[in-house]
Design brief:
Blueprint: E1 5-9, H1 14-24, E2 28-33, E3 44-47, H2 49-59, H3 62-67, E4 73-78, E5 84-88, H4 90-93, E6 97-100, H5 101-113, E7 117-120, E8 124-129, E9 134-138, E10 144-146, E11 148-151, H6 158-163, E12 171-181, E13 197-204, E14 207-211, E15 218-223, H7 234-245, H8 252-258, E16 265-273, E17 279-280, E18 283-285, H9 288-291, H10 299-316, H11 321-335, H12 344-348, H13 353-363, H14 366-379, H15 387-390
Parallel strand pairs: 1-2, 1-11, 2-7, 4-13, 11-18
Antiparallel strand pairs: 3-6, 4-5, 8-9, 9-10, 12-15, 12-16, 13-14, 14-15, 17-18
Length: 393
């Protein structure tokens, strides 16, 4: 097989999923991750439909994921007095099975740890492609050369920036920001299936505050022009939330007072990656780095399906990357359209009082039920080849 030595940047979801399949097909896999260790906890992610389940079952992780599921959380929208004004079922927001991102990453990491090389606490600083490989320089480690390099390093992908161009050319700011604060209520020791839970959400024009949700203890979403802030400065980010939500009623003052108590805190824009192709030479992108759409509802499923397709096409092509990458681009450009029309910010944090009322009405309408069904169908809109079977014949 050609192109056997591969480097994957990112050890969250897409990276370990790709590592699993590439190792399964006989590639020599190295994964580099800037964090010092696998990240625990984090917000909840979900899978929906037969396509997602098929890939996870072929990986042999479906049962373990189901054992670590968080349970279903409904969201009740309330007014300033705490009176119910809208309802969103957890069956819509949580898919078929929901799991903490950290738990899922740990499951995938353990499946690959024994046979794949992991380099934690480091990151790629430069990529130079040659006729026979990709020369990689690291922030800390010694330079190395790999046959192929894969970016699975998120919506702010460094691999994409180094190989394809500046982030501004591929990532569109959607006009909203979101923040998750505090470990999810389900991040305690697992003791079996959870009961159905309820989160409470409050809207003011252009702002949403959620308490007790599955993503985290607190979730904020607000409309804003592109902000200039340091993504590594959590204190400055907390001040943005405090200033944006100052003066609001309901439980918001209590929530803001608790912000300083949470170690888990993450703020980012709602953004969408727009690319015509996910490969260039010997380099390919997978997951959010290729087709990310923040809170679009399909990101984790796209990551595991994309990893499955990318590795499978490489195996079918006996490691010949040019043909394999072309097939991967073709398949995933079509499937990734499921996340291309998400308007989570406009839907969850409407900019006007009238918009909030219309959204609450829509949640109870037949049209919302039809939209949910469309999402179910779109998640399965891919003809999955049985790569493991095809490559062992």
């Amino acid at each position: 097989m050609r192109n056997q030595s591969v480097l994957i940047s990112g050890a969250s979801i897409a990276g370990p999923a790709l590592a699993y399949w590439l190792n399964h097909y006989g590639f020599h896999v190295t994964v580099v991750e800037r964090a010092p260790a696998p990240r625990p906890g984090g917000q909840a992610v979900d899978f929906k439909g037969a396509a997602h389940r098929t890939v996870l079952e072929r990986m042999g992780v479906w049962t373990e994921i189901h054992e670590h599921r968080t349970g279903t959380t409904d969201t009740v929208f309330v007014d300033e007095a705490g009176e119910r004004v809208g309802f969103m079922s957890g069956d819509f927001t949580g898919g078929d099975v929901e799991i903490l991102r950290g738990d899922l990453a740990e499951i995938l990491y353990k499946r690959t740890l024994g046979e794949c090389e992991y380099l934690f606490g480091d990151s790629i600083s430069a990529l130079t492609e040659t006729a026979g490989g990709v020369h990689v320089r690291f922030e800390r480690g010694a330079p190395r050369t790999f046959d192929l390099v894969f970016g699975a390093d998120g919506i702010h992908s460094r691999v994409r920036r180094l190989a394809f161009g500046p982030e501004s050319e591929f990532v569109e700011d959607l006009g909203h920001y979101y923040c998750v604060a505090g470990a999810s209520p389900w991040s305690t020791e697992h003791t079996g299936p959870r009961e159905r839970a309820t989160a409470y959400a409050f809207n003011a024009p252009g702002r949403l505050a959620v308490s007790g949700g599955p993503k985290a203890q607190q979730l904020y979403m607000f409309a804003a022009p592109e902000l200039d802030y340091d993504r590594n400065d959590s204190a400055a980010q907390r001040r943005i939330i405090e200033q944006t939500y100052a003066g609001l009623g309901w439980e918001v003052p209590r929530m803001l007072a608790e912000l300083t108590e949470f170690d888990d805190f993450y703020l980012d824009s709602l953004s969408q990656v727009r690319m015509r192709g996910y490969t260039k030479g010997r380099i390919a992108l997978v997951g959010d780095s290729a087709y990310g759409n923040t809170l679009g509802g399909f990101g984790t499923g796209l990551a595991v399906v994309g990893a499955y397709v990318l590795a499978g096409e490489l195996a079918l092509a006996d490691g010949e990357h040019t043909a394999a990458f072309a097939r991967y681009d073709e398949i995933m450009r079509r499937y990734a359209k499921i996340a291309s029309n998400s308007h989570a910010g406009k839907f969850l944090a409407p900019r006007t009082a009238r918009g909030i009322k219309l959204r609450n009405w829509f949640l109870g309408s037949r049209m919302f039920a039809l939209m949910s069904k469309f999402g179910d169908n779109a998640a399965n809109d891919i003809d999955l080849r049985n790569y493991p079977e095809l490559t062992t014949r």
